[in-house]
Amino acid sequence: MDTIAAIATAPGAAAVGIVRISGDETLRVLGALFAPANGSSSASLPPRRMCYGAVRDAQGRVIDHALAVWFSAEHSYTGEVSAEVHCHGSPVVLDEVLRAAFAAGARLARAGEFTQRAFLSGRMDLTEAEAVMDLIDAETAEAARNAAAQVDGALKRLAERAYVALLDIASRFYAVVDYPDEDIEDLTRADMERTLAEVERTLTDLLATYDRGRIVKSGAATAIVGAPNAGKSSLLNRLVGYERAIVTDVAGTTRDTVEEKAVVGGVLLRLIDTAGVRETDDTVERLGVERSRRAIEQADLILALFDGTKPLDASSRETLRLVRASGRPWIFVETKKDLTGDAPSIAPTGSDAPPHVALSSVTGEGFDSLARTVAAIFPTPPTHGGTLLTNARQADAAGRALTAVRAALAALCEGVTPDAVLTEAESAAHALGELTGRTAREDMVQRIFERFCVGK
Description:
The protein has three domains: 4-109, 2-Layer Sandwich (Gyrase A, domain 2); 130-209 and 387-450, Up-down Bundle (Four Helix Bundle (Hemerythrin (Met), subunit A)); 215-377, P-loop containing nucleotide triphosphate hydrolases (Rossmann fold, 3-Layer(aba) Sandwich), CATH 3.40.50.300. It starts with a strand and ends in a 6-residue tail after the last helix. Mean pLDDT is 87; it is low at 246-255. A seven-stranded mixed β-sheet has the order 3-4-5-6-2-1-7. Strands 9-10-8-11-12-13 form a six-stranded mixed β-sheet, sandwiched between helices. It is flat and about 80 Å long. With 456 residues, it is α/β, with parallel strands linked by helices. The protein has helices spanning 26-33, 91-103, 113-120, 126-137, 141-151, 154-178, 189-207, 210-218, 232-240, 283-298, 314-326, 337-340, 367-377, 392-413, 418-436, 442-450, and strands at residues 4-7, 14-22, 34-36, 51-56, 62-71, 82-89, 107-108, 220-226, 258-264, 267-273, 301-307, 330-335, 356-358.
């Protein structure tokens, strides 16, 4: 393979920056641009040991004084000989080091090419590769922990156990058919049923993690709804920490949805500030209200805001009706607590009453209560151990595997010929192979790595 190079650290000035190199010619490229301070050659450096020296350009001019290290194929990230140059984090310095690597014969790595090479060399499977990007993109501690466990192979191990069980059914069947004279113990109907039932339970539990995994990775779509001037934009601004939305005393200021992210109660929320729900003759505002209705229907969580300084009016009652009809989790948020004092709450009561929070976006009172309420709606699973499905590709593969396993069990119960059961078991194994990358198509693999950053 070509020898590739790229800047592996984030853009912008920093104390330290890293240029990564990988491929068959890594040591030659490193030797051309890095000279150890002790006078030895780069080729004589021991692997996995940092060495101090000078980085030079193609004309021999010193670019920086830096540290360099190389890794043998057996101990590298990519599964091939690789190296890193750790220099000062000036973008200019890093660009010059990269140019020196190009002058020595390396080419610029494509997005995700280092991790793609790790996958192709067998250093990791697709779930581990995807978790690398999830770890880079993690916006909460839970997301980072789940991704780190998947990089370590937690999801792979679970999928592999199911895959091997299905493969055992298929291989035993073929062995008996192909070698009828050999003394090979056939799988009994009870054996197959027990194995398939165990795989079904595993896949059912795995697929059930997708909703949580999606929220952990991408955040819960959270619609902030209410009548005009209920305090929706003020709440958004307080949660994100700056003036993201315009706040005025004029009703109908928000004409469109405004979206931002914030971590509340340890949960990543994709906040959607919506237009106030009310009847209006203004064409633009009416379109905004319609988008508010759609946001309610599509939300993972609804923060329904009601002005605590006045009784529920027609717009507030319409908000209540829409939120209740949506069937989505929601919180009754009573706003302007700094102005209501000890006035009676306007929140609904009774056995079907939603969680209630009274707060002030001016003073910050009640925001701790909001955080606890959100955390209670999205509790952290006690022991998922890095086996949350976090993207649609994984969920689709697990879903197809589960469907095939259930079809195999149904065929077994109906007493059809063993080859029908075998066909479904093989389909399930193939789908699990797509999950981990065993049977992944080249175009699918390419799409996965295209979303990576250059240098990873």
